Amino acid sequence: MEGQKTGKKKIKIYKQRIKVGQIETSEIARLTSQYENIDTTTIKTFKDFPLSKKTLSGLNESGYSVPTEIQKESIGLALKRLDILGAAKTGSGKTIAFLVPVLEILFTERWNPMDGLGALIITPTRELAYQIFDTLRNVGRHHGFSAGLIIGGKDLKFEQKRLQGCNVMVCTPGRLLQHMNENPLMDTTNLQILVIDEADRCLDLGFQKTMNGIIENLPPKRQTLLFSATQTKSVKDLARLSLKDPVYVSVHENAKYSTPEALKQSYIICELHHKLDVLWSFVTTHKKSKVLVFLTSCKQVRFVYSIFCRMRPGNSLMQLHGGMHQLKRMTAYDEYCRKEHAVLFATDVAARGLDFPAVDWVVQLDCPEDANAYIHRAGRTARYTQSGESLLIITPEEEEGMMKRLEDKKIPISKIEVNPKKLTSVQRKLEAILAKDVEMKQMAQRAFVTYIKSVYLMKDKEVFDVNKIDLEAFARSMGLAVAPRVRFLKRKELLPRLPAATTPDDQPIAELEDAIQTNFELPKKTFDFGVGDTDDEIDDIMVVKRRNHDLMDVPEIPLDMEKKKKNKIITKESAAKKILKKNLKTNVKMTFDEEGNAKFDATRHKMTDAAREYEESALAADTPGGINIEKARQVLLEEDKADKQMFKEKIKARHREQRLKDKEERRRIARAKKNESSEAEEESDDIYTSEIIDSLPDPDKIYGRNSESESDNEEDVSQSKKRNKRRASDSDDVSIGQQKTKSSKKLKKKNEDISLVNYEELALKFLES
Prior knowledge:
CATH class of the domain at 20-250: Alpha Beta
Number of strands: 14
Number of helices: 26
CATH superfamily of the domain at 20-250: P-loop containing nucleotide triphosphate hydrolases
Structural class: alpha/beta
Helix content: 40-55%
Strand order of the largest sheet: 3-4-2-5-6-1-7
Radius of gyration: 49 Å
Strand content: 5-15%
Oligomer: single chain
Distance between the termini: 151 Å
CATH architecture of the domain at 20-250: 3-Layer(aba) Sandwich
Largest sheet: 7 strands, parallel
């Protein structure tokens, strides 16, 4: 039938949507139930771990698919909420080993920004903190946690505003403690997990006070993870952290060597004054390699980098040390990571944890402090599955002690010889550069002193002996003509060596010697000089004043070594208290006029009598007391009134001065106009008189010319002609129409007066002729 609709009616089937929260709840329940059944022997990929989909996708996108040994052993234990001491070789993937548990624990706790800080990761250096934070962003990109990087060298106020909603914080110890002391938004009461990377460095004496202050502010109920290539086992350190039954995870403890197997290690023996020659020769012969050079101090790095840039070895040179600005440090770190061939001069700031990709050589120009420092330095190459080489340059005095310590740490290292044909001396170049550049010379002097001081302060005296250094030869090798003065060595040389004997009071001379070497002053001891020590017996020259003749002679100490008592250290607080006791008015500035009278400055002094009395009474008060708010309020009101009155008077004076200036300007304009009109009238009068005189008849034609006045008349005629010409030239500047209008107006008024005057003058001339 037409118009009749045919076909079946469509029926929509609505499926009930499952909320995201329900999915996460079921996933969390499934994952937590599998934590107890983790078997490390069956794990081959990260998918074998009971991890969330967000973490697995982040790991896959970041390029992590197969876990390393330390990751297999530690991730399962960390998910069970156990405290861990993790130790593994450098480049074995310890960062992922603690980042994955951090993300999973916060995920299972359903952490959100409102819950505050949940995980805290502490590292010893800024570069390592930056590297961990970058890895955390990549692996946890699908999670909704907020993360923050808290390191020194950045804006503190900017960091303070962002800490309130931070869930994961990566930080250095110094800046973290500063936030704990100064930032009220820093709250660690809900902290779930604490991670300390490079734990042995964070817990040593350099960070001891800082870490103690941080641990006091953390809740005792938390999970703690410690990771390092050289893990600490100190009972004191573990007790400070309040660890509960920690599990020690060391996958390489039973390994043959403590360094990576792909790392080839060697050392050479070199005199101290030849080290720069060896380094220059090495850099120039390895232009297609990525080299990392370690030195002891920041000033050495700065000098070697600057001098090598001047000599231009043909490589890309960079520096990284603690004395640089934070932005420059981050720029150098990123640039060195990107480049394929470059040389980076660095201190031990770059020795721990940093993952520089594809480093070919690690050159330790200065001997490391101990075997642990050597392991961390050499571990910047041959990371994960890559290979690399390490070169240690030591002096003959350091060889025996250092090789013994490396052998105890199971470090395989072989000795090699330098090819003398490829060794180039740069001493002459350095001398020429330093002779021209004063700033470079000062840098060399500072580098020289800091190296000597670093050797002097080393703990291991069997390896480092400052007395065996040839200072003059070392200074010449750096381009210096004379060795700079090292004050602490000079003081040590001037100390006297006293013989082993005793004083009359049975005090060993050795004690006096120790006192001299430590405090540079002798202890106060009085000697008995007998009864005859009086002023009455001075007359007799031969009288023996001292009766105890058996007192042995104590060697005299040089006068320049007799040091006065140490002055008491004056702090800012004590200086301020002294000033307050004296009731001195500081920062008072007085100005005087020409007569010598003091001027009153309203910006520095009180204007009203009540305010001055109140200020004097407050300064004269001996005992501290509270502020009288009512009286202070009245004083402020009176000062405000006086201030407003003074401001009004200034405005009135300014307006009065402006009016006088305007009035003077108007008078000046009026005078100028009047002068212009008078000059115009004089010019018109001259024109009118000349026209009238020219219109009169010539008397010579009527009365005749006399012989006597002929010459005079001729001169008058010539002068009149000249005047007419001059007037005609002057009148050319004025238009003809203006001349006619002026002349017609003036003629009507002055015609009669001018005609009478001219007639009288003509009559007198006629009579004279």
